[in-house]
Amino acid sequence: MVSMESSSKNDEPQNLPIFSKKNPNTAMTKKGVYVAISYMACAVLLVIFNKAALSSYSFPCANVITLFQMISSTLILYVLRHWKVISFTVQDSHTVATRTTDLVPFKKVLHCTPVALSYLLYMLVSMESIRGINVPMYTTLRRTTVFFTMMAEYFLARKKYSSYVVTCVGIIILGAFVAGARDLSFDYYSYTVVLFSNITTAVYLACISSLGESSGLNSFGLMWCNGIICTPILLLWTAYSGDLDATMNFSYLYTTGFQAVIVLSCALAFLLNYSVFLNTTINSALTQTVCGNLKDLFTVGFGWLVFRGLPFDLLNIAGQCLSFLGSCLYAYCKLKGI
């Protein structure tokens, strides 16, 4: 896990981001580019594996997948912390030799409760949103998250972006509406859930951006707080709703293929959460959202090839390309700092 980041020239630890307030219009660093690319790779694969579990295997309990992902991430963090491979606080990350095996104090856990609860809501809604909609249209609607993220950052962190960035966001959203204009598989419930997922994503990323610095925790510390707060809540909910019983009676539960999909989904969820924290704190919440749009081109391609969920349509392709153009223009603005 330590090798996920390259060391800096001044030998400061690079696997753990230091949270700081920064101008949202500053240029993206080389490290920020690597983090953004890592996030996009994990995100594409995770969407495919989650879609395979929920659609290809018709697994009825999306909340249970989320629970598995949280439990596995928390266990991985505990083991790495016990072995002193990682730390949970910024202060404790400067030298590996002096790291202790102490976990996060209860006071800091309470301080991170808004991040954890917004994360739980984001995970639950995001998992449900992909069930009743094909992958290409899912990624198209998810592109509107950039608008909600920009609004959330403004109200929660008072961040303002340049007119160039706002224009890029407008192009992305326009492309999303063009791509979905002739979707014949329109489902009111599924579309509503996806849009609500966009709102929860925006709030979650804005919470990370605004509370990261004041918590004194690094990415692993925030992930740990998410796990120990959200896992008991989700465990009780899945037991109460009957999802755990339904999982035990699931016909494919003991098949090798389904188990492989779940294991890979849990591993990718851990890597994705880590890259989300890094990308949001090193770059910005809006950059994190736009990175999600850039990886959509590959997700749409996989969705067409693997799940065959949407026929080729000229208007849809034009909208996809328009949104992708807006994402590329945004990346250019960030790299140039305009």
Explain what the structure shows.
With 338 residues, the chain is mainly alpha-helical. The protein has 14 helices and no strands. α8 crosses α11.
Summarize this structure as a short list of keywords or feature phrases.
single chain; 338 residues; mainly alpha; globular; disordered N terminus
Short synopsis of the structure:
It is built from 14 helices and no strands. It is mainly alpha-helical and 338 residues long.
SSE order and pairing:
Elements: H1 30-56, H2 62-82, H3 106-111, H4 113-129, H5 135-142, H6 145-157, H7 163-179, H8 188-215, H9 219-241, H10 243-248, H11 256-282, H12 285-294, H13 296-307, H14 314-336
Give the averaged pLDDT, no decimals: 79
Sketch the major β-sheet.
Answer: none
Q: What portion of residues belong to β-strands?
A: under 5%
- Our Rg estimate from Cα atoms comes to 20 Å
